[in-house]
Amino acid sequence: MSDKNYWITIPAKVRQDNDLTYGARLLYGEINTLSQQTGKCWATNGYFAEIYNVDRRTVTNWLKELRDKRYIAVEAERENDSSAEDWSPPPRFSRAA
Questions:
Q1: Is 55 left (phi over 0), alpha (psi -120 to 50) or beta?
Q2: Phi, psi dihedrals of residue 84, rounded to the nearest 5°
Q3: β partners of residue 79
Q4: SS3 for the chain, per residue?
Q5: pTM of this prediction?
Q6: For every one of its 97 residues, what pLDDT tens digit does the chain have, with 9 covering 90 and above?
Q7: How far is CA 7 from the centre of its chain?
């Protein structure tokens, strides 16, 4: 998303899940917002690491938390020895309820 001035939405179920770190909760909001147009978020771990000023491993851990709790689905694609992942919130969390 090129506009750096956008809102994120974090559903109460995610926001109040004490099993998640605060970073994972915030990341969910980013993924939710970035997936509004197509239903999928194609941002890289590097992108999230840069905007949150954290290491890529931290982003990977946050994504694992969200995936393990089934708040996001992760799909990996491999083409010409390069890999990409996309994340999408399950339908029940795709819009603020």
A1: beta
A2: -140, 150
A3: 82
A4: CCCCCCCCCCCHHHHCCCCCCHHHHHHHHHHHHHCCCCCCECCCHHHHHHHHCCCHHHHHHHHHHHHHCCCCEEEEEEECCEEEEEEECCHHHCCCC
A5: 0.76
A6: 455 677 889 999 999 999 999 999 999 999 999 888 888 888 899 999 999 999 999 999 999 999 999 999 887 654 544 444 565 665 544 444 3
A7: 14
